[in-house]
Every structure is written in structure tokens, then in C-alpha cells.
Amino acid sequence: MTVQLVRPTADLFDSWAAAVAEFGEGHVDGSGLTAPVTPDRATLDALIADAERLADTAIAPPADRVHNDLYWVVDGAEVVGFLSFRHALNEWLAEAGGHIGYSVRASRRREGIASAALTLGLERAREIGLQRVLITCDVDNEGSYRTIERAGGVLQDISDQSARGMGMLRRYWVAL
């Protein structure tokens, strides 16, 4: 297994569409998509354009967004997951979203992919000069919180984000 982070590309359309479809109709953390998602060419084209705009630090992001590097987690030519690295925190991200959001498709979980992807995401945070990053996960997502803890995450708190439609979240800081 060779896990890499790649920018969204039409070259991997079929694998991306299969990965998105595997998640079903719910939210896909780190994908840059909002549910429900139709994994078609138009959706991908819009995602690529949005990802390029948000990654361009020469252009101010919209008022409710921050600069963001959107990646697909790939193993060879297969999209196995998603990772979103936000350069800064706005109010919503400081409470619920964090600097890094990620997910791995169900058929590829428990292979170390999330750990490898998170390590690469933390390397990107170091590249832009962050001293620490906030990462959140659902309180009952043991796989995710163990991944964050193995990466050096220190639990800040458990936060009720029900008002935001998210439920209970574990919020971790990782020093870089």
C-alpha cells in the first residue's frame, strides 16, 4: 500500500465516483461535498473548480470559507478516501470542523489508510507554518479518535454540537 494525497482530478473520475457512492447519501468528511451527492461529471467539475479557488491563497476566500487544500487519498490509482486541510479556523471550524477533516471508504478501513493520510495532512500543516492543528471526530468514532491520538492528538474537550446538527464531538489539538 502506497497512500498519497492528490488534488481532485478528472483522470480519476471512475474511482472517485465509486468512492463517493460507497459512502451513500450522507456527509463525506473531507470530500468538499455536501450531501446528498450525485457522483457525476458535473459534480466533479464543480468540485475541482471550487477546490482550485479555495487553494489559491492569492484570492480571498468567500466570507464563510477559509483557504483549503482538498485532497483525495489514493492507493495506486484507487481513491480510497478524502482529506481536507483548512489553512485557518473560522468560527464554525474552531467549534466543530477543525483544520483537518478526513474519511476512508468502508471497504478500505482498518488498513492504516487514515493514519497515513493524517500524517500527510499534518506535514502540509507544517509546510505552511502552523504550530498546532485542531481535529474533531464524532464522540463514538473509535477508529478516528484512536487515529488522532496516535498522531499526537491531545483531547481538549467533548463538545455538544447538536445545535449545528452534528451531535457530540471529541476535539483534539495536535502540536506540530
Mean pLDDT: 94
Describe the biggest sheet? 4 strands, antiparallel
Q: Uncertain regions: pLDDT < 50 for 5+ in a row? A: none
In DSSP terms, counting alpha (H) and pi (I) runs of 4 or more, how many helices? 5
Q: What is the CATH superfamily?
A: Gcn5-related N-acetyltransferase (GNAT)
**Oligomeric description of these chains:** single chain
* Helix share bin: 25-40%
**Secondary-structure element sequence?**
EHHEEHEHEHEE
Relative strand content = 25-35%
How many beta-strand segments? 7
Radius of gyration: 15 Å
Number of structurally distinct domains: 1
Distance between the termini: 26 Å
The CATH topology name reads Aminopeptidase
Main features:
176 residues, alpha+beta, Aminopeptidase, 4-stranded antiparallel β-sheet, 3-stranded antiparallel β-sheet, 7 strands, globular, GNAT family N-acetyltransferase, transferase, acyltransferase
Give a summary of the structure in a few sentences.
Pfam families: Acetyltransf_3. The chain is built from five helices and seven strands, in the order βααββαβαβαββ.
Description:
The protein has five helices and seven strands; from the N terminus they run βααββαβαβαββ. Strand 6 and strand 7 form a beta hairpin. It has one domain: Aminopeptidase (3-Layer(aba) Sandwich), CATH 3.40.630. It is globular, with a radius of gyration of 15 Å. The mean pLDDT is 94. The two termini are 26 Å apart. The strands form two sheets. Strands 1-2-3-4 form a four-stranded antiparallel β-sheet, with helices on both faces. It is an alpha+beta fold and 176 residues long.
